[in-house]
């Protein structure tokens, strides 16, 4: 991806940073520089912390997908946050675990920071609990910490984690975590397609509501996320309506066909990566099956047996999903 250079690999996951994110950071730092050196370095440390916490959030999704037997191969950092390219097994529990794993990272980190702050200050009033301000609100309790700068950074650490968790879960806008959690819960009670239709309908309504809030409060980050969510929900509904088989997080369904040309967007890159992974997996399964025919099951290594078992389970899940839709 020419617009998103790779900056490294972590736990086998390629990490990319979109050029627009770098431009966003540069603009923010230039604005901060006008306030003097102290403001610049405070803002710089804030952006580094935010980048790190969003990245850990996305790693949570990746580990959640892998934990359920799925795959995770890429994380993209861009101005509206992070995107983890994951493919959990095509069943509701796996998707729910994958969706909830990201916010749970921030919940655990926020709880750790809260415990430190309450223990050291003896007051819960130092914890800012409004996740929709997008800046650290200095309450009277926080003013008392100005003489202890490192404690203010612990407060900031808590606030960013709390905001990331609450913001993602409180916005039922697909493909944000709240929207994916809603879709996974619905999927337990109905077919995948119907659950996706309901989740994306709720997401479009939610996107309009949050977009209006962002517009009237001049919160352009919230507005941008709302627009992104609305467009994504709309695209997903079109994909379902055309029955092209392309769906977020579904490795199996995405193998049926390619996305129509008129739908090519940032999603196409994700689809292409999935197709490459699917082709590699199918080739590996074919090789293992040929080995079984020629040498028997006893000849398989532990890794080969695991791959074959996962492929068999996914085939069973596809059959179960077809029966639900019938």
Chart the SSEs and their pairings.
Blueprint: E1 6-10, E2 13-17, H1 19-33, H2 37-67, E3 71-78, E4 81-87, H3 92-121, H4 140-143, H5 149-170, H6 177-187, H7 192-216, H8 220-242, H9 266-295, H10 302-325
Parallel strand pairs: 2-3
Antiparallel strand pairs: 1-2, 3-4
Summed up, what is this model?
The chain has 326 residues and is an alpha+beta fold. It is built from 10 helices and 4 strands; from the N terminus they run ββααββαααααααα.
Protein model, in words:
The protein has 326 residues and is an alpha+beta fold. Among the domains are: 1-110 and 156-170; 171-247, no CATH class. The chain is 66% helix and 8% strand. It has ten helices and four strands; from the N terminus they run ββααββαααααααα. The chain has a four-stranded mixed beta sheet. Strand 3 and strand 4 (81-87) form a beta hairpin. Helix 2 runs antiparallel to helix 3 (92-121), helix 3 (92-121) crosses helix 6 (177-187) and helix 9 packs across helix 10. The longest helix is centred in the first third of the chain and has 31 residues, at 37-67. The radius of gyration is 22 Å and the shape is globular. It starts with 5 loop residues before the first strand and ends with a helix.
């Amino acid at each position: 991806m020419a617009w998103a250079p790779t900056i490294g690999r972590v736990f086998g996951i390629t990490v990319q940073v979109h050029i627009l994110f770098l431009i966003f950071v540069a603009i923010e730092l230039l604005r901060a520089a006008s306030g003097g050196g102290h403001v610049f370095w405070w803002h710089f440390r804030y952006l580094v912390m935010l980048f790190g916490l969003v990245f850990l959030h996305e790693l949570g999704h990746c580990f959640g997908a892998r934990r359920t037997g799925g795959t995770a191969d890429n994380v993209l950092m861009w101005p509206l946050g992070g995107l983890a390219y994951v493919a959990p097994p095509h069943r509701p529990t796996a998707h729910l675990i994958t969706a909830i794993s990201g916010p749970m990272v921030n919940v655990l980190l926020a709880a750790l920071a809260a415990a430190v702050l309450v223990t050291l200050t003896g007051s819960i009033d130092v914890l800012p609990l409004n996740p929709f301000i997008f800046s650290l609100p200095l309450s009277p309790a926080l003013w008392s910490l100005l003489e202890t700068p490192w404690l203010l950074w612990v407060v900031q650490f808590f606030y960013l984690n709390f905001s990331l968790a609450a913001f993602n879960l409180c916005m039922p806008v697909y493909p944000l975590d709240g929207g994916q959690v809603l879709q996974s819960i619905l999927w337990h009670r109905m077919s995948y397609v119907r659950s996706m239709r309901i989740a994306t309908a709720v997401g479009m309504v939610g996107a309009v509501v949050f977009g209006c809030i962002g517009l009237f409060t001049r919160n352009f980050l919230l507005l941008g996320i709302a627009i992104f969510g609305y467009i994504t929900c709309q695209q997903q509904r079109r994909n379902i309506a055309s029955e092209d088989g392309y769906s977020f997080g579904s490795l199996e369904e995405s193998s049926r066909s390619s996305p129509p040309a008129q739908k090519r967007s940032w999603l196409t890159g994700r689809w292409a990566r999935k197709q490459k992974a699917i082709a590699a997996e199918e080739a590996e399964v074919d090789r293992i099956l040929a080995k079984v025919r020629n040498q028997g099951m006893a000849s398989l290594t532990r890794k080969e047996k695991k791959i074959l078992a996962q492929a068999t389970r996914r085939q069973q899940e596809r059959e179960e999903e077809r029966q639900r839709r019938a």
